[in-house]
Amino acid sequence: DAGVTQSPTHLIKTRGQQVTLRCSPISGHKSVSWYQQVLGQGPQFIFQYYEKEERGRGNFPDRFSARQFPNYSSELNVNALLLGDSALYLCASSLVSTVNTEAFFGQGTRLTVV
Amino acid sequence: DAKTTQPPSMDCAEGRAANLPCNHSTISGNEYVYWYRQIHSQGPQYIIHGLKNNETNEMASLIITEDRKSSTLILPHATLRDTAVYYCIVRGGRGSTLGRLYFGRGTQLTVWP
Lengths: 114, 113
Fold this sequence. Notes:
Chain A is mostly beta strands. Chain A is about 0% helix and about 50% strand.
């Protein structure tokens, strides 16, 4: 079975541009979460979606938005990119949205803002 | 915010057991302890999780103290491929924080030949 897949794997954008990152969860998983990992730090929570509804949002500006589609795939959008948005963006999927359910991560999208 | 404390780095000889400690003294009764690891520039890999009983799977063992204020991840026979950053995470929450993973800086484990 395929794991969590993210696309693209690498991306270079210019300040002020907009970017869309995509995530396909493991088949049957209904919960998707997004994390940002800047160099030298652990991943930081951005969003969680379950059954196409937003279930939680981390401490990120409104430039960050996301959605989940009927097939449970998800997109993360970032507008008006800043240099500080350069990071590894990780998607995690889990079967349901509970604390006793493993979350599995994709390999991430490396975003570089120049 | 991360609710765990881990040593920043540890090392271990190949073939020996690696014991990674984690302090989570403020853990609540319904919060689980999760362990993930991350090999450079890859996505975090799930290892194991538990509530209060010791747990074992094909990758590792998790020992949680009786008071649940600390735990130890044990890799029984470390290999060079186990070199990674290991994250100990307390997972719980209610409402909009339910299920979030709060990562700290983790422990860099280096396995040497």
